[in-house]
Design a protein that fits this description.
Length: 113
């Protein structure tokens, strides 16, 4: 009746085998990942020019900042993975950081308007 791998439901009760393992959340996770990748590559392709011509940075400083930003984008999922595995769980981690991401982008959009 229950899964034998220690899986729990969102109430921390043992997961019932017939009610777990479905793909209900998959479209949301894939949609979130698609939007994140579009945002990353949309920003990444224009960021050097933006830093050079709008913020008047030198070419070396602009490329260095983009490299640091890109590296940060690839390292922070490790932090998220640790938080998901150790504390929050995968769904709460995705939901929490998606909300933070939306509010941060909204603030940046308003600040540059």
């Amino acid at each position: 009746m229950y899964t034998k791998d220690g899986t729990t439901d969102f109430r921390k009760n043992p997961a019932i085998k017939k009610e777990t393992g479905s793909w209900k959340a998959c479209p949301y996770i894939l949609g979130n990942e698609c939007c994140e990748r579009l945002a990353y590559y949309g920003i990444n392709t224009n960021l050097v020019n933006y830093l050079k011509f709008q913020l008047n940075q030198s070419s070396v400083a602009a490329v260095s900042n983009v490299t640091n930003w890109s590296g940060t984008c690839y390292v922070t999922p490790l932090i998220g993975a640790f938080l998901a595995d150790a504390y929050l769980g995968r769904y709460w981690t995705i939901a929490s950081f998606s909300i933070i991401y939306v509010f941060r982008d909204t603030d940046l959009s308003i600040a540059h308007a």
